[in-house]
Amino acid sequence: MGRATGPTYVVPFRRRRKNLTNYAKRMKLLKSGKTRMVVRKSNRNIIVQFINYSEKGDVTVAAASSKELEKMGWQSRCNTPSAYLTGMLAGKRAKEKGVSEFVLDIGLASPTKGALVFAAAKGAIDVGVKTKFDEEMVHQSRIRGEHIAKYAESLKGKPEYERIFASYLKAGFTPEKIPEAFDKVKEQISG
Fold first, then answer.
1. Is 9 a member of any domain?
2. β strands within the chain, DSSP E
3. Domain count, the chain
4. Helix (H) or strand (E) holding 117
5. Taking the alpha carbons of 25, 134, 113, 121 in that order, is the dihedral positive or negative?
6. Rounded to two decimals, what is the model's pTM?
């Protein structure tokens, strides 16, 4: 079957054609009138932004990247603990700018239980920014990175250990001590 043509055919927006934006979902979020907490994951980082709608273009109120956590002693950038800490940092900045409530914008990510986007939302909630949120979407043990520490402990002494945790080891970070490092960074952010 050929391409649709004719006088009534309307070409979809470019971002819709490239499957980058779901405009129906975006419109529902904008109709809420609340600040959107936009969570995006790249190959190496997690980016959390608090954004207000404006007719001239969206305005970013506060933002944080998991790359900023390195300055606080955190070495991992793209996992559940990193998402939580990044959400907490962005939430703290947003609260300082007067944001009291948000609606979560996960873009085209799947809303599955335990997803990074929910860990980021939990981080923002824990610093005092409100939203509707089901606490069962993320487990506290995963937020602290206990699952990573347990896995690293089980692999210790095996050849896979150095391959899987190479970036941690190169930075002088012990993967079995992720929960302790998490607690220190969390205290720095909330303090």
1. no
2. 35-41, 46-52, 59-65, 102-105
3. 1
4. helix 116-126
5. positive
6. 0.88
User: What is the predicted pLDDT for the residue at 2?
Assistant: 56
Which tokens sit at 39?
A: 């969570």
User: What are the average pLDDT values for consecutive 10-residue runs of the chain, which has 191 residues?
Assistant: 73 79 81 94 94 94 96 89 97 97 90 93 97 91 95 93 91 91 95 79
Is residue 129 one of the residues assigned to a domain?
yes
Q: Classify residue 38 by its DSSP letter.
A: E
36: domain CATH number is: 3.30.420.100
CA-derived radius of gyration, the chain: 19
Q: Which amino acid is at 124?
A: A
Count other C-beta atoms under 10 Å from residue 38's C-beta.
Answer: 22
Q: What is the pLDDT of residue 19?
A: 75
pLDDT of residue 108: 82
128 is a domain residue? yes
Q: Is the CB of residue 68 less than 8 Å from the CB of residue 89?
A: yes
**Domain containing residue 113:** 15-138
Strand 59-65 to 102-105 pairing: unpaired
